[in-house]
Amino acid sequence: MTLFQTYDRHPEARPAIAAAWATARVTADWCKAELHAAYGGQTPVFTYPRAARPVVAGIRPWIERLFRLR
Fold first, then answer.
1. Which member of 9, 27, 32, 34 has the greatest number of CB atoms within 10 A?
2. pTM here?
3. What span, in angstroms and rounded, lies between the C-alpha atoms of 33 and 49?
């Protein structure tokens, strides 16, 4: 709520707040895409200790795509 109030009341802070939000959103989307690529579907992140641990991948999928290792 505080960030929304700052965004609403101080127009000069809007570009910085929007950039920070976009950065956080892009990071979250990359993490979600990496988990999906590594494990082939929805990966339970907050299931400790009920679910089995995912299989560990050798190289991160996004690194393979970045360096075109596949």
1. 34
2. 0.44
3. 24
Sign, CA torsion 52/29/14/8? negative
Measured distance CA(15)–CA(19) in Å, rounded: 6
Element (H, E) at 64: helix 61-66
Q: Give the span between the Cα atoms of 59 and 41, in whole angstroms.
A: 18
State the residue for tokens 């802070």.
13
Burial of 64: CB neighbours in 10 Å, binned 0-12, 13-18, 19+: middle
Tokens at residue 54, please? Answer: 């995912």
Give 33-54 pLDDT, tens digit per residue.
777 777 777 666 665 555 666 6
**β strands within 1-70, DSSP E:** none
